[in-house]
Design goal:
This protein is mostly helical. It contains 30 helices and no strands. The N and C termini lie far apart (83 Å).
Length: 617
């Protein structure tokens, strides 16, 4: 299934073997088959059958298998098959976490961190995040940067152009492959690093990485020698690694490699002094992993005097490049108060980042691929599972799919909005501004929750102040204009409309129409107020003093006019705002069309005049 060791996946054979093992009572096989039935991402080899998945999970959970208990927790939490029950979900997550299931520990940590169906507790969250982070750090090792997790939000992807996609275009990759085959050094190095690390939609492929680095090394490039040494070291071919690193001692990759070999005594006699020297040279050239190693040496006091301050400095530098072990060590220092004041919140956030860099992060890209292939239900279930583990991007994407009604999995509109609301709320709590805006919409319209204009305005305010979201600014202007959820204040409304126009070019036309409508409304209100308080009184008294039948006539006409304007003001609803904006839009269109017509006439006249003035040959 995992296509390891360069083999192509054979799903038919894999699931045939799992079916056979499951029928003989193997609980691990039941869980693997259960997840395949649950997500339906391997049809037609395994059917999409959530009921059968539940039966398999239940059977394996009764036998005490932690992964099966975690699967039942997901089902009860999301309501995928059984009725939603947060108490049962918490119970199964707890059992699975105690059984050592990393994903259950991660989900439980997020619940304590966010206060979902439990009392919020940073210490409890930290305890579980630390367990998962320890596991991830061990698997990464000292020479890796960790799993590359590409966080693509479907909402942003739809709004942005394809050129801004974080995924590499297949045609672009083929173009670089063509250049590399023609001997282009930069293309060879770039492709080598891409296949060595993976990411941006490209799977990690050591053989291809070796191929391109080997081609670049033939031209004597020291950076290519360094990467060849790194691959040999990962394959534990230390003599070969030493040979390549010696050829790259002026390159930061080669310097880091030599330092690593001396530090661990791989292929050479262990020598911390030499290791320190090479790591220092590499760090001076900005090598991230050398910064990490210097941090570890000063943290442990190996080869140098123990100095937590210097260690912290090196870890901070390495973390800016996203090195997972830098985050891990920073998290542990904050968790235990080593070199810094103990800070549970900072430690939990850092170790959460490490936990999300585990191999399970690949599921995000699997879900993304399924969505774009049209398997919406399968993508939704994968996102819901990842959302339980605390991935903000999965929460946002699950809510996005539910909000768009792209899925047949949940047919009930009320239930779908309720689940979307929960995930928007969780994503917003983790800092996603787009989710904050959607949360405001849900409160405003009463989707998935009770309508609450005041709370909607609060969410829009946060999105405006923190994320500078132009749509949130516009919405606040509208709410101030009509006095919905906020005090009616025309001047504040105009201020928010103007802020929206300043924040986004796309908001210029809507805000121009809104301001035109607002000014029209203000003039109408001023006229009515002026008429009520001054004009009618003075005019009426003057005409009465003058006398005659004209007074009755003029008075009745002004009374009628006043009643019309007063009635417009008192019965104004959202609908007439829309009508007025539509009228203004039509007027704007006519003005632009007339202007274009005049420009064309002027151009024709100018052309005719030039033709008349042309000298005759």
């Amino acid at each position: 299934i995992n296509a390891e060791y360069g083999q192509k996946p054979n799903f038919r054979k894999a699931y045939g073997l799992l079916q056979s093992a499951s029928s003989k009572g193997n609980n691990k096989a039941k869980v693997l088959l259960g997840f395949a039935h649950l997500t339906g991402d391997h049809e037609p080899y395994v059917s999409h059958n959530t009921s059968l998945a539940y039966e398999m999970f239940d059977s394996a959970a009764k036998a005490g298998l932690p992964s099966a208990q975690r699967a039942l927790a997901v089902i009860y939490s999301t309501g995928i098959e059984a009725n939603s029950s947060q108490s049962k979900a918490l119970l199964y997550y707890t059992f699975a976490a105690l059984g050592g299931d990393s994903l259950a520990q991660m989900a439980l940590a997020f619940r304590y961190w966010s206060g979902i169906s439990v009392a919020q507790s940073c210490e409890s969250a930290l305890k579980y995040y630390r367990l998962v982070a320890d596991d991830v750090a061990k698997k990464v090792g000292s020479s890796g940067t960790g799993q590359v997790v590409l966080r693509i939000r479907l909402m942003e992807e739809e709004e942005e152009s394809p050129q801004n996609s974080p995924l590499l275009d297949e045609n672009l990759v083929q173009y670089y492959q063509f250049l590399a085959d023609k001997g282009d050094l930069q293309a060879q190095l770039g492709l080598g690093q891409l296949y060595l690390q993976g990411g941006r939609g490209i799977e990690r492929n050591i053989k291809l990485a070796q191929h391109y680095f080997s081609a670049a090394a033939k031209s004597g490039n020291t950076n290519a020698y360094g990467f060849m040494g790194k691959i040999s070291m990962q394959l534990k071919e230390y003599d070969t690694a030493l040979k390549y690193y010696k050829l790259a001692t002026k390159d930061p990759m080669g310097q880091w490699g030599m330092g690593t070999l001396y530090y661990n005594g791989w292929g050479v006699h262990q020598d911390y002094t030499q290791a320190l020297s090479y790591f220092t040279l590499a760090s001076q050239q900005g090598h991230t992993e050398a910064e990490l190693q210097l941090g570890l040496m000063h943290l442990s006091g190996v080869g140098v005097k123990k100095d937590y301050g210097i260690a912290l400095k090196h870890f901070n530098i390495a973390s800016k490049s996203g090195h997972v072990l830098a985050f891990y060590n920073l998290g542990m220092m904050h968790a235990m108060g080593i070199g810094v004041m103990r800070n549970c919140q900072t430690a939990a956030e850092l170790l959460k980042n490490v936990a999300e860099r585990g191999s399970w992060g690949n599921e995000l890209m699997d879900a993304h691929a399924l969505y774009h292939k049209g398997f919406i239900d399968s993508a939704l279930i994968k996102y819901l599972i990842l959302a339980e583990q605390g991935y903000e991007v999965a929460q946002a994407n699950a809510a996005y799919i539910l909000d768009k009604d792209d899925t047949e999995f949940i047919s009930n509109l009320r239930s779908r909005y309720k689940r979307a609301f929960v995930n928007w709320k969780r994503a917003a709590a983790q800092g996603f501004g787009g989710a904050r805006l959607k949360l405001g919409d849900y409160y405003y319209y009463g989707q998935g929750t009770e309508a609450d204009p005041v709370e909607a305005a609060e969410q829009y305010q946060i999105a405006s102040d923190v994320d500078h979201n132009p749509q949130a600014m516009f919405n606040l202007g509208y709410m101030h204009e009509l006095g919905i959820g906020r005090s009616q204040d025309m001047h504040l409304a105009k201020r928010y409309y103007d802020m929206a126009a300043s924040a986004s070019v796309d908001a210029h036309v809507p805000t121009m129409l809104a301001n035109a409508k607002l000014l029209t409304k203000l003039y109408v209100q001023y006229f009515i107020q002026f008429y009520k308080e001054f004009t009618l009184m003075m005019l009426y008294e003057g005409i009465v003093n003058w006398g005659g039948s004209w007074s009755d006539y003029i008075s009745s006409q002004f009374d009628t006019l006043a009643q019309i304007f007063v009635k417009m003001d008192e019965t104004a609803t959202e609908d007439w705002d829309i009508y007025l904006m539509s009228i203004l839009a039509v007027v704007l269109g006519l003005v632009m069309a007339l202007r274009g017509h005049n420009v064309r006439i002027a151009q024709m006249r100018a052309a005719q005049q030039n033709a008349n003035q042309r000298p005759v040959m």
